[in-house]
Design goal:
single chain, Isopropylmalate Dehydrogenase, 2 domains, seven-stranded mixed beta sheet, five-stranded mixed beta sheet, 47% helix, globular, transferase, Phospholipid_synth_PlsX-like, acyltransferase, lipid biosynthesis
């Protein structure tokens, strides 16, 4: 297996990407890792390690986080992100991982890598942490803000297959994000999607309200990209505010500091269970080849877990299974 990495993408690139890849290279010596980056940024760090299954594919450009996605993809043909998508399209790599510009990765995935036949729009599908510790796949969180009911139906099918094959969930429960749990609730989009998802060969558990999402009421949550992106950013914001406020309170007085010392092991376990780094990245489901978007602030551990996810994605034939289900109708 050969996995390509955008070494120039992400808040902590290239060091965090290189460190994560080196950890993965030691863990999976049967896998070849290709770092896409500039010679001056990547080679000095890599040469000091001497790993046989890690190599460099030099590029001369990279796409910045603030750049307009489609324009950047079309103009920067030798950027790490564009070259990576080209490599998976041509079979030079079995999977591509980037923590870079999300919009640019989605644009390159569509324009260069291409969609699975029968899929209208790909979905960005991260795993949300839940209080159960299991995690929940959410799609879409921004790839397609203006979704149609047919798109949500496709998301439900792809999400169920990915959750079964990669996340290893037995008979994944599929939920539809809505303003109420009753079948007749919601917009014309969610009502039509509800009817269509019911007809799929998936375990559909009905509508799910946003307040129940982190309780793990389903394994796969389907929504349009606009609603999903709001849910994602609100969840991240609430989590950050909660932990920041908790830290302030535990350091406010001497008594609080003593209490924090007692509670520290339990708090660390809780924080770990709610940490996105444990789940790796968000696949762009619906593309003909495995492309994974790692979190922009990924550290080495998040990169390592993205590799674990990519290996399962490839080994278990997720894309082939999606194609087969679509052919069955």
């Amino acid at each position: 297996m050969r996995i390509a990495f955008d070494a120039m993408g992400g808040d902590h690139a290239p060091q965090a990407v290189i460190d994560g890849v080196l950890q993965a290279a030691k863990t999976w010596p049967d896998t070849e890792f290709v770092l896409l980056g500039t010679e001056e940024s990547v080679r000095p760090v890599l040469e000091a390690t001497g790993m046989d299954n890690v190599s460099i594919h030099p590029v001369t450009e990279w796409i910045e986080a603030a750049e307009e996605p489609v324009r950047a993809v079309r103009r920067k043909k030798d950027s790490s992100l564009v070259v990576g998508c080209q490599m998976v399209k041509e079979g030079a790599a079995d999977a591509f991982i980037s923590a870079g510009n999300t919009g640019a990765l989605m644009a390159a995935g569509l324009l260069i890598t291409g969609r699975i036949q029968g899929i209208d729009r790909p979905a960005l599908a991260p795993v949300f942490p839940t209080v159960t510790g299991k995690g929940m796949l959410v799609l879409d969180v921004g790839a397609n803000p203006d979704a149609k009911a047919e798109h949500l139906k496709q998301y439900a099918l792809m999400g169920s297959i990915f959750a079964e094959k990669v996340l290893e969930y037995d008979t994944p429960r599929v939920g539809l994000l809505n303003i109420g749990t009753e079948e007749g609730k919601g917009t014309s989009l969610t009502k039509e999607a509800y009817r269509m998802i019911q007809e799929l060969p998936v375990h559909f558990s009905g509508n799910v309200e946003a307040r129940d999402v982190l309780n793990g009421v389903c394994d796969v949550l389907v929504c349009d990209g606009f609603s999903g992106n709001i849910l994602l950013k609100n969840t991240e914001g609430v989590a950050k505010t909660f932990f920041d406020r908790l830290k302030q309170e535990f350091t406010r007085t001497f008594i609080n500091k003593l209490a924090a010392a007692v509670l520290k092991p339990g708090l660390k376990r809780f924080a770990s269970s709610m940490d996105y780094k444990e789940h790796g990245g968000a696949p762009l489901l619906g593309l003909v080849r495995p492309v994974i978007k790692a979190h922009g602030s990924s550290d080495a551990r998040a990169v390592f877990n993205a590799v674990r996810q990519a290996r399962l994605f490839v080994d278990r034939g997720v894309i082939k299974r999606i194609s087969e289900e679509l052919e069955r109708g």
